[in-house]
Amino acid sequence: MYTKEFDIRWSDIDANRHLANSAYINFMSHTRMGYFMENGFDQHELAKNNLGPVVFYEHIYYFREAFMGKPVKVSLELKGLSEDGMYFEFLHNFYDHKGRNFASCEAMGGWIDLKERKLTGLPAHMRKDIDKIPHTQDFRILTKEDTRKFGKTPKDLELKSA
């Protein structure tokens, strides 16, 4: 399992003096990008292929509080991947300095072509590299329908003209 260690900084805590929601999101993003940079998905490779990762959702489950003063570890596992590599689902777990799991997050996203501004599959060599991320026990092949499993769709405001 890939993990990255973090110190909880003053800017990572909220009004309740525990790890803020935004810090969880930042730690997960940093963990993913750390893995990518260490495994062939650095900024140069992403720019060469005109690719960028986009997150569709992150569902965080909190089990206990985390406070400043002790390091935390964030894991990264691959929970799902589409055959063309367009869609991915990651599992992140958060562990305190004693190895206790204090939060977990399921994150789903995809790859966007930065010129076309549309979702796209990964080139074969990158698809092979992303599949090297340690898999969860319940890993599965993703389809477009998996990205819509919660049935959420945009609902625009109806603006009244003056």
Throw out a few tags for this protein:
3 helices; about 160 residues; alpha+beta; seven-stranded mixed beta sheet
Would you spell out the secondary-structure blueprint of this structure?
Blueprint: E1 2-6, H1 21-38, H2 43-48, E2 51-62, E3 72-82, E4 87-95, E5 101-113, E6 118-119, H3 124-130, E7 135-142
Parallel strand pairs: 3-7
Antiparallel strand pairs: 1-3, 2-5, 3-4, 4-5, 5-6
Approximate helicity band: 10-25%
pLDDT < 50 runs, ≥5 residues:
none
- Beta strands, count: 7
Mean pLDDT: 95
Element order: H for helix, E for strand: EHHEEEEEHE
Q: Separation of termini?
A: 57 Å
Rg computed from alpha carbons, rounded to a whole number of angstroms = 17 Å
Q: DSSP helix count?
A: 3
Shape by Cα distribution: globular
- Class inferred from helices and paired strands: alpha+beta
The profile of the biggest β sheet is:
7 strands, mixed
**Could you tell me the strand content as a percent range?**
35-45%
Account of the 3D structure:
- With 162 residues, the protein is α+β, with helices and mostly antiparallel strands.
- The chain is 19% helix and 37% strand.
- It is built from three helices and seven strands; from the N terminus they run E-H-H-E-E-E-E-E-H-E.
- Strands 1, 2, 3, 4, 5, 6 and 7 form a seven-stranded mixed beta sheet that branches.
- The longest helix is centred in the first third of the chain and has 18 residues.
- The radius of gyration is 17 Å and the shape is globular.
